Amino acid sequence: MAHFAELDENNIVKRVLVVGNSDILDQNGQEQESVGVAFLQRLFGENTIWKQTSYNNNMRNKYAGMGDTYREDLDVFIPPSPYPSWTLNETTFQWNPPTPKPDDIITETTITTYVWNEDTLTWDEVVENI
Description:
Layout: E1 2-7, E2 13-19, H1 33-44, E3 49-53, E4 69-71, E5 76-78, E6 87-89, E7 94-96, E8 105-106, E9 110-117, E10 122-129
Antiparallel strand pairs: 1-2, 1-3, 4-5, 6-7, 8-9, 9-10
């Protein structure tokens, strides 16, 4: 089975559909993204936009999910930014905070973790007793 993401006019993923392997084979029996796109355009309209995605993350950075953006310049799917202040690392395709997250601390009696606070642009400490 092959998976294809439908994109809107802003390259935002609208949905992901499964296409049978026989519907993406060319005349030589080879899988081709363009054949799958043509199949989906016959079903949903010639103006629809489709990009193949991999359930196993074998292509385009990650499996496309609703709300992800397809970056044509990088040929990858990118999840939405978790916070407006975070920036995309275009090498790892990960969103990075303005300041690195401190390491969690585990002692005999407490676990200290950190949660991003977008209002203050800092990491808030959360301490739990164990």
